[in-house]
Structures are given as structure tokens and as C-alpha cells.
Amino acid sequence: MVELDVYVKAGIITLFVFLFGLMFVKYIDQDRLDRLNAELDKVSYGSESARLLQLYTLVFNLSQNERCSYFGREMNQSMVRSMELASLLEKEKDNSLSGSYLNIKHKFLLTNMELYLYSRQYRASCETRMESLLYFYDGKAFCPGCLVAEGRLESLKQRCPDVRVFAFPYNSDESLLSLLVSKYGVATVPAIIRANDEKVGTVSDLGAISCVSR
Questions:
Q1: CATH second-level architecture of 1-126?
Q2: Which CATH superfamily is 129-214 part of?
Q3: Contacting residues for 170 by C-beta, under 8 A, at least 6 apart
Q4: What angle do CA 114, 119, 123 make, to 5 degrees?
Q5: Which of 86-90, 127-131, 179-183 is most confident?
Q6: φ, ψ for residue 62 (rounded to 5)?
Q7: Spans of all domains in the chain
Q8: Which residues contact 25 (CB under 8 A, 6 or more apart)?
Q9: Could you give the dihedral angle defined by the CA atoms of residues 36, 50, 53 and 180, in that order, rounded to the nearest 10 degrees?
Q10: pLDDT, tens digit (0-9, with 9 covering 90-100), for 52-82
């Protein structure tokens, strides 16, 4: 009987440790998801501000200088936040975050595409040193060339603070991204497109980008 009690107690302790471990992992995963959602909200605020600015301009006839000044501040802040969130998503992609991670990533792709379109609008209507680059990568398979491209792009961003990189998977199931891929005729990756010439380029073309001196 004493020996049986020992086994029962050992079983209870093991079960407790197992359940505690599950709860701890769930807590950590939820904490990561909460952080990603909080960062996504920050990026989304930029898009919402841009939409409100357009409406404000229509209602109150905002001057071009005022509009560009406000638009520029919001765009810079939003794109910095976007790059920070992209880095977080990359770090968390191998962690056990279930389908919630995929939902956040999907929302981020749409928000990032909206920011890219706003950046094009900003560049077309305001005097700016900012340059937008579209970078397409393989979102479904390992891509050695994409790793090389991402290293070169990171170096470029460090060297040229006015360069903004918008990264998208060229083989995404998102229909809006498919439109963008179709527009530029992207068939292989990595592919890099400069907003000022709209020609599909490769990693070697990054060397032709000169930074604007401050």
C-alpha cells in the first residue's frame, strides 16, 4: 500500500508539472501574440492617419506644404514601425503561435501594401528625398538568393536612411499582392523594383542606388 501511494504521488506530481508546462507555454505564446498585435496596431495607425489626412484636405482645403509636412512625418513613423514589425514577425515565424501568427502576418501584408501605395502618392505629390524599393521574395520555399538579397538590402538601409524597403512574397495567395506581382511581371525571385523607374531588377542593381547626402 505504501509503495502504491508513492506511485500515486509521483503520478500526481508528474501531471502537475506537465500541466504547468502547458500553461507556461500558452502564456508565453499569448505574450508574443499580444506584442505582435500591439506593433501591428501602431503600423495601422499610420494608414488610418493617411486616410484621414486625405479627407481633411478635401474638407478644409489644406495647403500643399501643410499636407506634405504632415504626410511626411506620418509616413516616416509608419514605415519605421513597419520595418520593426517585419523583423519581429521573422523572429517569431518558427515559434508555436498557431493560426493567430498567420492572421497577423496576413494583416501586416495588407497594411504594408497600403503604406507602399501611400509612399508612392507622397513621392509623386511632395518634394522628398525618400526612395521606395519593392522587394519580392519566395514566401513558400527556401530561397538562397533571397537571403543574399536581404543582407544587401539591410546594408543599403543602414547606408541610406532615406531608402524604404517594402517586402512581399511574390507567390502569396492574397489577391491584391497578385495584382502587384502581375503589374511588374515578376516571375523569379529575388526581384527588386525602384519606384522611380519601375523596372524589375536584381541584387546587383542595388549598387547603382546612391544615397542623398544630408
A1: Up-down Bundle (1.20)
A2: Glutaredoxin (3.40.30.10)
A3: 136, 137, 138, 139, 181, 186, 189, 191
A4: 155
A5: 179-183
A6: -65, 140
A7: 1-126, 129-214
A8: 96
A9: -150
A10: 887 888 788 888 888 888 888 887 788 778 8
